[in-house]
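Good morning,

Attaching, inline, the backbone tokens for the sequence recovery test we're adding to the shared suite. The designed sequence is right after.
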């Protein structure tokens, strides 16, 4: 045991009986050279200490409402940092055109040099968590080393405790580990942003992340663990997905059916998972495993939400809004603070025109170095809280069995092609739909917004295995199930010629109820070249019953028309992309060809480019 670990902390580590964990901790004490090392167990007292330290150190500041704190990330660290994220690979190995890699030896040498002495003057925290519910087949143990109290505090909110779990590992080396340092700070935000690194080392199940604070970059258990788990799942027989899990109620509010859903970031994922009337199990990452009864079971990897706060208001997202405006443990990130109260874009209340935000002291009209006006909060500003603090938390969220999944929803951000909702023609066609998600880029990652990007299963940012292997495993997962989930596609972002959205934000409730009803065969559907779409009469009734809204034939026709030229163009684009990848399963190209044939045949039969849904009946 390292001589720098005092008696009390030494006892905590010895109780783990895990030589590999001790070896890792010793190694990074030697390398990072902290002034002090503190081991945090599952005890409430120690977690409270962590929360207090985050405030004492200035990484968080208390707000007026009891339990609320604010944390800021550097102005240049407001989202996932894709440019500095790499998968370390042995020489000569290739993954996919999509995946940024780096020679493993070079990457390790580089990051070890940055880590050398990085914690001088700081305290190293050693924390233990469990990914997935504890004591279940989903559980993965994780060891976190960090010098950020904010990261430790966030993880305490977002993940289940893992110290006791580590004891039960009986010395096994089968766990993930994460090494994080925020590096040098000024006004409590990172300054060495040119030395940011996020390196995934699959061989050792470890991730290095330095000179950052934004949780998507710094919190090991979140998107960094997602990558390690994707690697693990693809060698085994389960799926690790960038998916929410939600319990959808039928139109009478009597039956609850569990769905998962994958949407690229900032494309309506959390609001779909949190729709009023439904229950939330998880909003970001799910593990899916085959159950003994033939269903797929899904578990939430997390116990909290690191959610986007932009546009959270009383009208659109009541449960979250209520949780954010009442007393409880909440960390706010990168929003405006005035007189101890948080304000953000789209909160539905008038905001003051000065205060402190992600740019420091702020007054309305303030510009950044590039001359752009700084908004009151960042578009990717976030909040962190526990799911069980929400009034729509599902009671079985922590069930070690997970929940049985009847449906999977894939969504993208597309203004002119896909219909609002459609059911796949079977598992393989559904996998094809998921694999061909396209979306416009958003503020969730650093860089330009609004470019169309191909994002298979909304998981491409996190893929660390070849795309072909990932798709093959998806196909196999469904084939092996006796009762595979029904796959649906949604698109909330269709626009008319005037550039206005064709649907309200709240319309997604109708699409969800329809999907829930479809898996129980409550509604009929119309077969089109892209899949099965709703009947007008069913939607009219659902709009009226669930939203008290009129839904005209004209609206239906506009939204559910099959736009053949746009759909064919998409297929050409995607075919070119997939042809450049190695080992894409034959089944994928069969689906693509069949989809193209169906579109061409429909164009011929109906003699037009844009076919009304009524023409297919
Ligand atoms: C996302 O962008 O998909 C998020 C937030 O869930 S982050 O933690 O940054 O990945
Ligand atoms: Mn996410």
């Amino acid at each position: 045991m390292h001589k720098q670990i005092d008696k009390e902390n030494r006892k905590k580590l010895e109780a783990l009986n895990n030589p590999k964990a001790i070896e890792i901790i010793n190694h990074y004490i030697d390398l990072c050279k902290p002034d002090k090392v503190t081991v945090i167990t599952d005890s409430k007292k120690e977690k409270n200490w962590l929360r207090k330290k985050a405030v004492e150190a200035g990484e968080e500041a208390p707000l007026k409402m009891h339990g609320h704190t604010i944390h800021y990330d550097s102005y240049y660290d407001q989202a996932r940092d894709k440019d500095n994220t790499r998968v370390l690979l042995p020489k000569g190995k290739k993954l996919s055109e999509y995946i940024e890699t780096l020679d493993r030896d070079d990457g390790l040498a580089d990051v070890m040099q940055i880590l050398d002495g990085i914690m001088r003057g700081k305290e190293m925290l050693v924390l233990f968590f469990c990914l997935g519910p504890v004591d279940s087949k989903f559980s993965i143990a994780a060891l976190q080393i960090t010098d950020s109290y904010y990261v430790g505090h966030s993880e305490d909110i977002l993940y289940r405790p893992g110290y006791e779990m580590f004891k039960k590992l009986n010395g096994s080396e089968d766990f993930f580990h994460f090494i994080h340092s925020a590096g040098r700070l000024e006004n409590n935000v990172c300054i060495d942003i040119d030395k940011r690194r996020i390196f995934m080392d699959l061989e050792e199940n470890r991730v290095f992340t330095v000179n950052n604070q934004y949780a998507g970059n710094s919190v090991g258990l979140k998107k960094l663990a997602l990558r390690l788990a994707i690697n693990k799942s693809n060698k085994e027989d389960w799926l690790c997905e960038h998916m929410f899990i939600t319990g959808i109620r039928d139109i009478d509010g009597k039956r609850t059916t569990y769905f998962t859903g994958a949407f690229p970031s900032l494309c309506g994922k959390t609001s779909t998972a949190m729709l009023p009337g439904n229950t939330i199990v998880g909003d970001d990452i799910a593990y899916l495993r085959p159950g003994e009864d033939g269903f797929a079971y899904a578990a939430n990897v997390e116990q909290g939400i690191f959610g986007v706060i932009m546009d959270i208001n009383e009208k659109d997202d009541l449960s979250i809004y209520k949780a954010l405006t009442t007393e409880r443990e909440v960390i706010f990130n990168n929003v405006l603070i005035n007189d101890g109260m948080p304000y953000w874009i789209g909160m539905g209340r008038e905001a003051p025109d000065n205060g402190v935000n992600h740019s420091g002291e702020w007054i309305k009209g303030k510009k950044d170095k590039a001359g752009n006006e700084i908004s009151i909060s960042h578009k990717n500003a976030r909040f962190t809280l526990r799911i069980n603090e929400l009034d729509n938390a599902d009671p079985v969220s922590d069930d070690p069995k997970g929940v049985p999944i009847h449906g999977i929803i894939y969504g993208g951000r597309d203004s002119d092609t896909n219909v609002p909702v459609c059911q796949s023609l079977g598992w393989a066609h559904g996998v094809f739909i998921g694999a061909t998600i396209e979306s416009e880029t958003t503020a969730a990652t650093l860089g330009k917004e609004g470019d169309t990007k191909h994002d298979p299963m909304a998981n491409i940012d996190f893929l660390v295995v070849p795309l072909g292997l990932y798709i093959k495993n998806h196909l196999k997962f469904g084939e092996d199930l006796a009762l595979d989930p029904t796959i649906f596609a949604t698109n909330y972002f269709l626009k008319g010629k005037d550039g206005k959205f064709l649907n309200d934000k709240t319309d997604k409730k109708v699409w969800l109820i329809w999907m829930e009803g479809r898996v129980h065969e409550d509604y009929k559907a119309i077969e089109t070249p892209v899949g099965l779409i709703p009947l007008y009469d069913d939607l009219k009734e659902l709009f009226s019953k669930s939203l008290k809204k009129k839904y005209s034939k004209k609206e239906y026709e506009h939204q559910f028309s099959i736009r053949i030229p746009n759909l064919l163009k998409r297929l050409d684009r995607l075919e070119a992309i997939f042809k450049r990848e190695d080992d894409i399963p034959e089944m994928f190209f069969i689906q693509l060809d069949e989809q193209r044939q169906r579109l061409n045949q429909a164009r011929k039969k109906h003699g037009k480019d844009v076919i009304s849904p009524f023409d297919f009946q």
